[in-house]
Design brief:
By secondary structure, the protein is an alpha+beta fold. It is built from five helices and 15 strands. Helix 3 (105-111) crosses helix 4 (165-181).
Length: 287
């Protein structure tokens, strides 16, 4: 009898579950139809928005269009050209102590120069293509893409054009001294952390901080690049643009080597293989 009652109890539970499924079937079907409708409204290339963005990556324009119900594709151009960042750099000629070299007129002239003003010119322009994935019914999304553009991030140059002849002449003397006596004295120039920027034949400092030309990007965002129910939408992106370890390069293409790892500049350059990005975007949906 107990076994029979157990069978009846199990049968009752199955029947109740079947009834619940039958009652929920219309709602499930309606939800599926809603999803299908949503998919058809957000299909391949059937909407287009234009956007204006600004942030750490620069200011620029882009266009966006859906390529799937949860994927939006964006492409555009960003760049920055801020004002010059000016600072005083130390003349390394003052660090020469070798008697024979100090007695040379070229070295004496260079040591009379104290600090020289340099200007760091931020110039960074990139085209990009990016996919936004909205896997959840929330404003959060994941983003991945590629930036491609100029390799130069900073351009260093002395503010007084052609005024570094004394440093150039002193550096030539140091090179001659090293070759003649097989020594390894550092070059004469302007110190930037553990890097020494030497003047060129035009008596100028002309150094560029270079990165990769093609830079992968990954990040997250909040908002919409293409509103579903409105014309205007706002989104914020935060992520990393991977550009490799930056290098300091002379105008002739020669790479500048660091003299050590003691300064903050050297440590920053050694680990700064990704540039932090934070952009805000205002978009207008055309259709």
């Amino acid at each position: 009898m107990k076994h029979f009652i157990h069978i009846i109890s199990q049968f009752s539970r199955v029947a109740m579950a079947a009834a619940a499924i039958a009652l929920l079937s219309p709602a499930i079907g309606a939800q599926e139809n809603k999803n299908l409708k949503l998919h058809s409204e957000n299909g391949l290339f059937n909407h287009l928005s234009v956007g204006l963005q600004t942030g750490l990556g620069g200011t620029g324009l882009d266009v966006a269009m859906p390529v799937h119900r949860i994927v939006t594709l964006r492409a555009g151009f960003v760049g920055n050209a801020f004002g010059d960042i000016k600072f005083k750099a130390i003349n390394t000629a003052s660090e020469i102590t070798q008697v024979q070299m100090v007695e040379d007129d070229a070295i004496k002239q260079a040591q009379m120069v104290d600090k020289i003003e340099l200007a760091a010119k931020p110039r960074f322009f990139n085209a990009f293509i990016m996919a936004e994935v909205h896997p959840f019914p929330t404003p959060f999304y994941f983003a991945a893409g590629l930036f491609a553009g100029t390799r130069t991030f900073l351009h260093f140059r002395n503010t007084n054009d052609g005024a570094l002849q004394s440093l150039y002449d002193a550096n030539q003397k140091v090179n001659d001294y090293n070759q003649l006596f097989h020594t390894n004295y550092p070059p004469v120039g302007l110190r930037f952390g553990d890097y020494v920027f030497t003047p060129d034949e035009n008596y100028n400092i002309d150094v560029k901080m270079k990165t990769w030309a093609v830079k992968p990007y990954i990040g997250i965002g909040f908002g919409q690049s293409m509103a579903r129910n409105h014309r205007l939408s706002v989104a914020v992106d935060a992520g990393l643009m991977f550009w490799g370890a930056p290098e300091f390069v002379f105008n002739n293409g020669t790479k500048i080597k660091s003299s050590g790892k003691s300064s903050g500049i050297t440590r920053i350059v050694s680990w700064l293989k990704a540039y932090p990005m934070l952009q805000i975007r205002l978009a207008y949906k055309i259709f």
